Amino acid sequence: xxxxxxxxxxxxxxxxxxxxxxxxxxxxxxxxxxxxxxxxxxxxxxxxxxxxxxxxxxxxxxxxxxxxxxxxxxxxxxxxxxxxxxxxxxxxxxxxxxxxxxxxxxxxxxxxxxxxxxxxxxxxxxxxxxxxxxxxxxxxxxxxxxx
Length: 147
Known about the structure:
Layout: E1 2-6, E2 11-16, H1 22-36, E3 42-44, H2 52-55, E4 63-65, H3 80-88, H4 90-97, H5 100-114, H6 123-141
Parallel strand pairs: 3-4
Antiparallel strand pairs: 1-2
Helix pairs in contact: 3-4
């Protein structure tokens, strides 16, 4: 399961599920965002998502905060924006990158609240269960700032 969370509201903006790979779940979550017309301003990703293919998914409007894998010899043109952001303000970059901790805390709370495993056997029912968990998360934990 891959979930994209809006840190201001705590709401899942997009999610994807796959039995095969986390990258396939990520692709489904990004497809959901595009389908809903949601524009991502900033995204903090794990080093697993530091490939050129993933970085190409985000345009100039999106600030990507990711730390490369161990082998950085194959950095491409897509990394220039990220490296420039690191050089300009490394503390701000790390602060934004480690905002991932807030989303990880939300995922952990969901596991404690709804269980660590999906007990359904059929894949379509498993996907329905994941969607239900995401929906319940959005109902229980969404917070709106008074404006």
